[in-house]
Amino acid sequence: MSTPIDELVQSVVPEVVQWRRHIHENPYVGYEEQPTADYVADVLNTMPAPLEIRRLTPNSVVADLRGGAGEGPMYALRADMDALPVQEESGEPFSSRRPGVMHACGHDSHTAMLLGAVKVLCQMRDRIRGTVRFIFQHAEEVIPSGAKQLVSLGVLDGVSMIFGLHVRASLEVGKITSRVHTLCGACNDFDIVIRGAGGHASQPELCIDPVIVSAEVICNLQTVISRRICALKAPVLSITQINGGGGAYNVIPDTVHMRGTLRCLDRDVQARVPGLMEEIIAGVAKAHGAEYELSWLEPNIITFNDDRAYELAVQAAHDVVGDNYQVLENPGFGVEDFSEYQAVVPGCYVMLGTRPSGDGPVAPGHNCRFRVNEDAFPYGVGFHVNVIRRLLID
Questions:
Q1: DSSP structural state of residue 19
Q2: In the chain, what are the domains?
């Protein structure tokens, strides 16, 4: 049996689809998405209730809806807007018009569904006691994080809790999943430079071969995971690039440059592993008479769902999918900068099922064939709306 909220949600779905397809056709990567932010601001200016719209950065939008039922707390809903440097091959009739850029992670859908929630909640304004803050965020996919920038600019000032969602192509439409506490991992990306002494490959005894040193470093770094960290808390440590030398077959280079990533699900492990890595690298380099540099990019922290916020999110999920809410058994090593908000205020992040129809293989996020099933949009809009209903209306 449908409710008045269900009817309001269904009434905005055609516009949600329209908004999503426009954003999908016109994608912009992190810190270049001002046209998307401008479009969002234009849509917000058409809403059926007054909104206080601000641009804390040129490529983000924040809108406050003040309820008509009196003063109360403020709660935030967030969507990210940036795309990826991927050439789209999804076959969708509304595929990207911009070569080499694609909404391959569903941020177009996140943005459109939050716009849909804005429109529904504007029509419920007279029943809202408090304020809803809608955050349309830039630069989730890149470093430095757009969320971190907005937090530094005061986007959470006055906010009591924050909620968000992410599409999940492997999960069937009509399902929502999440878990309490750790949901997504932390990420520390790093660079390692090994400096030796190059020379002719026929006389390696006259060289300090940074290739050999690098090979030992790569292998020995895995002992940090297998021998220094409890297996129940083990992170993932991957060297993803190794570069050294030029075009000649017979020249040992002076330096080798490696890059990699560390993914952790435990805050203490995230703090401990970098020091253990440096011990290994320093020891191997010293054994060969080489020098090294280890440097770290700005880290992403663990996405951690607060107990109370999680409970509210589960209730809102049941409102829209009933018994099809699923508790996620294990956290994932993927990274989500929603964590930057959760480091300041309690919050909860959930996954929305958007599996494409049909029996073929499902392309994961960040894949050039990634697709989103638009039949999921009522559930995403409904989740946002019911979170606010439970907090500021009931």
A1: H
A2: 4-182+302-393 (3.40.630.10), 186-296 (3.30.70.360)
CB 262 within 8 A of CB 273: yes
CB 148 within 8 A of CB 297: no
For the stretch 126-157, pLDDT in tens is 999 999 999 999 999 998 999 999 999 999 99
Task: Find out whether 291 is annotated in a ligand binding site.
Answer: no
Radius of gyration of the chain (CA): 24
- Residues 6+ away with beta carbon under 8 Å from 374: 17, 20, 109
Q: Is 105 annotated as a binding residue?
A: yes
Q: State the Cα–Cα distance between residues 347 and 146, nearest whole angstrom.
A: 17
Beta-bridge partner residues of 244:
256
> At residue 91, what is the residue type?
G
Read off φ and ψ for residue 71, nearest 5 degrees: -70, 155
Q: How far apart are CA 30 and CA 40, in angstroms?
A: 16
Q: Six-digit token pair at 194? A: 């090994």
Q: What is the identity of the amino acid at 112? A: A
Q: Are strands 199-200 and 255-264 parallel, antiparallel or unpaired?
A: unpaired
Residue 25 in 3-state DSSP? Answer: helix
- Residue 142 in tokens: 């890149």
Does the pLDDT value for residue 1 go beyond 70? no
What phi, psi does 240 have (nearest 5°)?
-110, -15
Q: Is the pLDDT of residue 234 over 60?
A: yes
**Is 366 labeled as ligand-binding?**
yes
- Cβ–Cβ < 8 Å for 77, 162: yes
Output the CA torsion sign for 164, 168, 173, 179: negative
DSSP secondary structure letters along 125-155 = GGG--SEEEEEEE--SSSSS-HHHHHHHTTT
Give the residue carrying structure tokens 């500021």.
392
CB-CB neighbours of 334 under 10 Å: 14
CB atoms closer than 10 angstroms to residue 230: 8
* Cα–Cα dist 101/182, whole Å: 31
Residue 60 scores a pLDDT above 70: yes
